[in-house]
Target: TIGR03013 family PEP-CTERM/XrtA system glycosyltransferase
Amino acid sequence: MLKLFNHYVPSNTVLQLLFDAMLLFVAVVAVFVLQEQVDVTLLIAVIPSAFAFAVTMMILNGALGLYRVNFGADFRETVMRVGMSIVLSIPVAYGIFRVLPWGEVAHEAAELNVIGLLGFVVAVRGFAVRRVGAGVLVKRIMVIGTGADAVAVEHALSNPGNPSLQVVGFYPAGSGDEVRVDPKRVVHFDGNLLNAANHLRVNEIIVAVRERRGGVIPLRELLDCKMAGIKVLDLSSFFERVRGQVRIDSLRASWLIYGEGFRQGWGRTLVKRIFDLVASSILLVLAAPVMVLAAILIAVEDGAPIFYRQERVGLGGRLFKVTKFRSMRRDAERDGKPRWASANDDRVTRIGRFIRKVRIDELPQLFNVLKGDMSLVGPRPERPFFVDQLTRDIPFYAVRHCVKPGVTGWAQVRYQYGSSVDDAINKLQYDLYYVKNHTLFLDTVVLFETVRVVLTGDGAH
Model:
């Protein structure tokens, strides 16, 4: 895993992106050199333009999920994913053609060939990722511990999204450590931890033991491993890197205080605010026809009111009124008792079900962004009734209120629709990751992921 702007990205994904970008760059240059009269003017125009075009298109398709490993995807699902990438890439590519200087020297046939090459690269990568195995840069990992936490680590690393991470064995933390992993994978080695790690050619060690007192963890031996160049991670850092979440069950207040991240400086706040103002203004202009149509359909099916305003908890625990298109019946809470919204809520109207699925009901919140109550990206704002309940039941829940709530968020693109306290706990783990690591780069990733979720219907809300 590589850490880019405080966000972890699979190293194999970066290598695939770079390889495909270079392939597309070389192919574009070759098309122009073969079809046009080669001179210095053409090369000066084409080479930097081809590079910018290749990088832009690969980043776009990467953000749309083309490079997400999914071994469970069937052929139809893969075709839909590749088709979506191609359909979205073509108009963007033609837009780039109009901006880049090669338009002055290129014939239409050359541009068509470039589009064909782009489609070929996208199709090859889309079907290749479906069959990719362990990847190029495989990291061999040894887990300290054999209990429930060790099982959780193994489960996280068995995810197809982590093909370059391989567990080579489990090292017992002590004689009293229960064995919940496969006994055949427990490391029995005569010697110390460093010798065992060298014997198994280990690159990383994950400490999957929460109890750190009484000599349970061999600290001296772990230090020897670190000094020998073997990376050592605790549970919190491991899940942050692999799952993009800060686990509640392995979290301590001292880690929040002394650890990296969770910085809320004025510079970061200013950049985020400027981004919100510019992006939400553009989105409002682009979404205006869709919003007008949605308002008409809501009025025709269930009458007024068109909008739904509700009190939510925002930055610093302050209350504000969120505005959404009304997707539920007017008598959804006629008894006055707050209820969790669920994925198949029977209170949702027919039009409401559709606009919720494609996120149209969230569009009026762009006015909340312009006003400053919300951000484009951040933890979703919750109702005061549920915030009070969740703050009592879930440790560190209030930490999510140290940034502005968002129209979309890291938890929304990584986890399904939440309708219980357990779901709130799982979403909080992603919210804490966002609060700890949020940057303009991560905001951009979330926005692209939101587009992917809406277009593919992956189920995250």
